[in-house]
Structure formats: structure tokens, C-alpha cells
């Protein structure tokens, strides 16, 4: 069990000059007040215009523009401006009609890639007037997980909670098991018209098999009822298998009983991610070579030759454990802070993890707060273990992802949906520049905290509308640059109270 370490900030004192003032005249008092007022206006305007945009998107609504105090940045709750979840269908929404047309789906990727893909497929089935067969989970990904849908999710709840929206069955009718089916790779980020056109397949087939489920729907410009259906599917229907839900809640309670509050850190410093991104900063030559070989021999990874230095400077690499430690320290978190690591096996084990634990000793994994007996049922099942990490991350006081992958986006979106719980997203490109200057003595250590806090004062998950495509990009490529619907489901699935307005 982790133990708190005593921590105290060194005290510093400064000498102040004292003056014996003469009795001020009324004119000097007036001049002083006017000067003070003018200076206040200048300071207010200076900080109000200093808005930091996200690394890869241009928000339609900026976060709070006030420069936050360190204590508020650490644990304080965000102003939700009276926003609340709203996923109920509109008055014109009609209940689904049972159809003898079936969609079978092979979900691809890790847990959260599959979760958002399944939610997309629920919406696609609704658009195409089809019956959805319970999706097959990916068994061929990096983790080689043999889990079925019912091993990870509450199958009965999934079917019944969506029965007004889409007809869902556990398996194809026996008479259709050997029937010819259309096998489709639906285009990524497609809209209503695309899927309405795809309904022509029903003329020749009763079954359409979808080979991939991820990113099959556009992020924007879909009907409100379809967007809200995606939210009902993800946040209400796709509950985890009860034993997973129950253990996840118990682990949250144990973390809170020890320290009251904790940070969930999605430390994406795992072998597959480092290999995929080509990021080798801080690794040995042998480790770098191992990752290169893995990337070159993984057939479905298109990029084989990657310049690691350019990746890091561009902000495309996960933060290293050392960089995360410096980042948290600069934000002002005490060494005694409980940090839950929501991730798989850290590459290099304790050799690299120690660069974080040397600054924050109270780093914990699920294996440290759960018994061997409790985890026994989930051993060798990466998706089920990832589900535990997901629950603990959503319920944390602060969530910090070291990389903007599928889990980071899904957790951020869920926390926004539940009331804009604080999520601090590191500006990796900006941090790398700061860290490099610190390493080469171009930056004094005393300046680090102010720079890091200023860089992240608008990156804490405060309410804002979902960002659109980056400017200057044309054609279908622009869809890839849009902020994910599941990362920020505002405004479709988050409503504003009439009594409050967003700034």
C-alpha cells in the first residue's frame, strides 16, 4: 500500500523598503486612483487577449480566459456554466421498426477504438434501417485478447437500452448463417447521404458485413438525433460487464480512502506506441533498434522510416516518464500526490519509470490496490484490464494523458459529458521546447513553473464547442483534422441551462 511522504515548501523571505510618507494632497490621491485604475485595465486586457489555442484544432468557443491561481489549477473544479448531459431524442424521433436486414461487424483496435466504433455502428444501423448483430471484438490486435463482447460489456443492457433506437440480436438467424453477404469497408467519416446510398445493397443481400468499425461516421453535420444516439450508445448502453464495473468502483474507493483525491495518468509509454510513433528519446540504442524492428515487421503500419527527433520537436511523441514528472512538478503538485497509472506495461520497466517515481513516489498501478484474487479473472485480457483503467480515469479528480490516443480522447469526452471534470492536456510541442531549454541551461529553473502554468491555463477541459477542420486543408483529408465527436460531444449531447451563458 502506498504511503504519504511528508512535504514542505522551502520558505523564502524578501526585504521590503519602508518609507515615511508625507500627508498626501487631494490631487495626488486622485491622480493615484486614476493611475491604479488605468494599470488594472491594462493588466486585464493583457491577460484577456492571451488565449492559447489547442495544438491541432481551433476551438469555436475558447476556455476561460482568466489566468488561474496555482491552487485552482491543481484541484479546483471547473465552472460548467450550467451545462448538463442531454441525450434524449427530439419529438420527431420515431421508434425503430423490426427489419430482416442485418449488419454484422468486426470491431477493430483496442478497447476505446472498439467502443466508439460500436457506437458508430449503432447509428449506422439506425440510418440503414438494419438489425445490428452483437459485434465481434478484435482478437488480432497487438494485445491478442480473446475476450468476446459479453466478456467486456453488459450485453443484456446494451440490447434492451437501445431497443427503441435499433433492433439488436446476439447472432444471425440460422437460416442466414450461410447466406451470401456484402462485405464492405465503409468510408471513414461518412455522412447521412453516404449511408442512405448504401441501402441499395439490401436489394441483393440480407446481410452486410462491416470489416472495420472505427471512424465510420463524420464528426459533424449529422442530424441531432443521430448524434444523440451515438451518445446514448457510448455513455448509457455500453456499460462494462458487471464484475468489471464493480471492481473498478472498489478500486476508486480504495484510492479515495487513502488520500481523498488522486490523479489518473494515462502514461502511454508502452512498446507499441513508441514503436508506432518512432519516438526513441531517452532510450538506449538497443531499445531503439528493438522498436524499429517491430515497426518494420508490423504489416498494417504504413510508416516504416521515421525521424525520431522531428517527431519529438513536432509534439508527436508521448511524454516520457521523466518529462511527466517535471511537468507535474512545474504545475505545483506535491511529491506526496497519489498518481494512478492507467496504462499497460511501461517500456523498459522500472528503469524508465523510476525517472517519474524519483519525483513522485506515490505512483500506483491496479496491481498495488487490488488483490491477486480480484485480478485473476482479468489476467491475459487486455480489454478487460483497460476497462478498469477507464473507470478509474473517468472518476479521477484530475486526468492527464501523456499522448492524445484513443483512450485519452474517450476519457476526456466522457469527463466533459459528466460535467467537465478537469482534464489537463499537455501541450507536448511547447513542453519539449521548454524542457530542451532547461536541459541546455537556456532557461532558469525558477522560470519553469510560470511558463508551464501559463502554457496550460486553457488546457484543463473547460467547456467549449467542438473544433472543426484545420484551415487550408481541402477534400476528405479535412475530416481527419476535425476534433473527434467522442472527445467533445458539445453541443449536441451537452445542453446549456437558460439561466447561464458561456463566455
The proportion of residues in beta strands is: 5-15%
Mean pLDDT: 86
Q: Classify the helix fraction into a percent range.
A: 40-55%
Order of the strands making up the biggest sheet: 4-3-2-6-5
The main sheet comes to: 5 strands, parallel
Number of separate strands: 11
Q: Write down the overall geometry.
A: globular
Uncertain runs are 1-23, 32-69
Number of helices: 20
Termini distance?
44 Å
| Integer-rounded radius of gyration | 26 Å
Structural class, from secondary structure content? alpha/beta
Describe this structure in words.
This protein has 503 residues and is an alpha/beta fold. The chain is built from 20 helices and eleven strands. Helix 8 packs across helix 16, helix 12 crosses helix 19 and helix 18 packs antiparallel against helix 19. The longest helix has 23 residues.
Briefly say what this structure is.
The chain has 503 residues and is an alpha/beta fold.
Question: How are the SSEs ordered, and which strands pair?
Answer:
Elements: H1 26-48, H2 70-74, E1 83-85, E2 102-105, H3 111-127, E3 131-133, H4 149-152, H5 155-161, E4 168-169, E5 182-184, H6 192-198, E6 207-210, H7 224-237, H8 242-259, E7 263-266, H9 271-277, H10 285-297, H11 308-313, H12 321-331, E8 339-341, H13 350-357, E9 363-364, H14 366-369, H15 372-376, H16 382-394, E10 398-401, H17 406-417, H18 428-439, H19 445-455, H20 477-481, E11 494-496
Parallel strand pairs: 2-3, 2-6, 3-4, 5-6, 7-8, 7-10, 8-9
Antiparallel strand pairs: 1-11
Helix pairs in contact: 3-7, 8-16, 9-10, 12-13, 12-19, 18-19
Amino acid at each position: 500500500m502506498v504511503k504519504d511522504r511528508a512535504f514542505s515548501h522551502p520558505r523564502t523571505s524578501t526585504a521590503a523598503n519602508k518609507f515615511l510618507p508625507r500627508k498626501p494632497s487631494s490631487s495626488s490621491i486622485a491622480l493615484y486612483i486614476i493611475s491604479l485604475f488605468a494599470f488594472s485595465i491594462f493588466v486585464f486586457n493583457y491577460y484577456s487577449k492571451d488565449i492559447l489555442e489547442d495544438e491541432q484544432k481551433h476551438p469555436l468557443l475558447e476556455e476561460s480566459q482568466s489566468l488561474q491561481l496555482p491552487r485552482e489549477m491543481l484541484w479546483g473544479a471547473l465552472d460548467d456554466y450550467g451545462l448538463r448531459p442531454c441525450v434524449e431524442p427530439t419529438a420527431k424521433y420515431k421508434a425503430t421498426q423490426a427489419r430482416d436486414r442485418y449488419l454484422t461487424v468486426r470491431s477493430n483496435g483496442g478497447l476505446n477504438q472498439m467502443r466508439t466504433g460500436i457506437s458508430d455502428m449503432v447509428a449506422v444501423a439506425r440510418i440503414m434501417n438494419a438489425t445490428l448483430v452483437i459485434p465481434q471484438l478484435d482478437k488480432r490486435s497487438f494485445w491478442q485478447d480473446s475476450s468476446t463482447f459479453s466478456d467486456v460489456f453488459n450485453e443484456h443492457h446494451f440490447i434492451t437500452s437501445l431497443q427503441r433506437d435499433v433492433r439488436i440480436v446476439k447472432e444471425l438467424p440460422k437460416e442466414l448463417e450461410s447466406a451470401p453477404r456484402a462485405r464492405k469497408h465503409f468510408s471513414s467519416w461518412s455522412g447521412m447521404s453516404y449511408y442512405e446510398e448504401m441501402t441499395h445493397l439490401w436489394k441483393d443481400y440480407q446481410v452486410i458485413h462491416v470489416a472495420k468499425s472505427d471512424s465510420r461516421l463524420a464528426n459533424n453535420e449529422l442530424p441531432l438525433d443521430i448524434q444523440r444516439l451515438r451518445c446514448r450508445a457510448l455513455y448509457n448502453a455500453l456499460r462494462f460487464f458487471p464484475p468489471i464495473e464493480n471492481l473498478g468502483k472498489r478500486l476508486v474507493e480504495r484510492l479515495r480512502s487513502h488520500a481523498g483525491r488522486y490523479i489518473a495518468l494515462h502514461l502511454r509509454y508502452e512498446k507499441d506506441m513508441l514503436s508506432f510513433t518512432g519516438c526513441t528519446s531517452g532510450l538506449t540504442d538497443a531499445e531503439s533498434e528493438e522498436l524499429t524492428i517491430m515497426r518494420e515487421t508490423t504489416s498494417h503500419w504504413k510508416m516504416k522510416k521515421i525521424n525520431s527527433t522531428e517527431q519529438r520537436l513536432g509534439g508527436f511523441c508521448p511524454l516520457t516518464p521523466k518529462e511527466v514528472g517535471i511537468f507535474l512538478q512545474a504545475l505545483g503538485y506535491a511529491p506526496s500526490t497519489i498518481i494512478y497509472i492507467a496504462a499497460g506495461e511501461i517500456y523498459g520497466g522500472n528503469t524508465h519509470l523510476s525517472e517519474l517515481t524519483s519525483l513522485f513516489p506515490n505512483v500506483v498501478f491496479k496491481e498495488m490496490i487490488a488483490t491477486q484474487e480480484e485480478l485473476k479473472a482479468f489476467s491475459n485480457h487486455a480489454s478487460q484490464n483497460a476497462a478498469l483503467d477507464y473507470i478509474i480515469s473517468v472518476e479521477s479528480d484530475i486526468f492527464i494523458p501523456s499522448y492524445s490516443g484513443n483512450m485519452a480522447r474517450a476519457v476526456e469526452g466522457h469527463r466533459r459529458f459528466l460535467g467537465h471534470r478537469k482534464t489537463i492536456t499537455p501541450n507536448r510541442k511547447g513542453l519539449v521546447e521548454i524542457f530542451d531549454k532547461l536541459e541546455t541551461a537556456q532557461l532558469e529553473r525558477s522560470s519553469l513553473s510560470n511558463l508551464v502554468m501559463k502554457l496550460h491555463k486553457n488546457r484543463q477541459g473547460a467547456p467549449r464547442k467542438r473544433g472543426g477542420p484545420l484551415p487550408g486543408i481541402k477534400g476528405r483529408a479535412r475530416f481527419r483534422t476535425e476534433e473527434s465527436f467522442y472527445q467533445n460531444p458539445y453541443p449536441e449531447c451537452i445542453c446549456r441551462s437558460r439561466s447561464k451563458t458561456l463566455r
